[in-house]
Amino acid sequence: MLSGELTELLKDQGPLVLYQLGQSYGVDVGSRGRHLTKDLTSAIKFLEYYGLLAGWGRFETSNAQLNAGQIEESVTIKIYENFFAQATINHSGNPSCYFISGLLAGIAEGLFEEGHHCLEKRCMSASSEFCEFVVRRNIAGK
After folding, report:
1. Which end of the chain has fewer CB atoms < 10 Å from its terminal CB, N or C?
2. How far apart are the C-alpha atoms of 108 and 100, rounded to whole Å?
């Protein structure tokens, strides 16, 4: 494939590829967190610390409401000093932390052994003071 064609392909598919890479890695991280901790609160603290040690930023997770061991509605995660957002500044106003979005969805999947998705609502690369992500459980038919 010629370099121009590859650049054009990555422009369109790059966000999806980054999301899927993050998701794949996140499942492994979440599974480890599940096995290393005794409850959800401990797992969340472990993962917040893991993100900080990995150099991804300082994570703050909203209180998760559980129903039958699963996230009831959604979990909001704020990341301050997000390495990925600081590395790229965009002028579109759109969030751009696709890897972290996938990572968070994968971590939830690994923790709860069920599929989740993640949407970035605010992004430092688009002039926000922090990145904000919402993680929800995949529910059939929705």
Report:
1. C
2. 12
> Which two tokens mark 61?
């997770």
The residue ranges of every structural domain in the chain are 14-68+103-142
Give the single-character DSSP code of 33. Answer: H
* β 70-71/58-61 pair status: unpaired
The model's pTM is 0.84
- Residue identified by tokens 């061991």 is 69
Q: How far apart are CA 21 and CA 15, in angstroms?
A: 10
Structure tokens at 113: 């052994």
Nearest residue to 85 via CA among 104, 98, 76: 98
Query: What distance, in Å, lies between the first and last C-alpha atoms of the chain?
Result: 38
Rounded Cα distance, 17 and 105, in Å: 14
The span from the CA of 51 to the CA of 13, in Å, is 26
Cα Rg of the chain, angstroms: 16
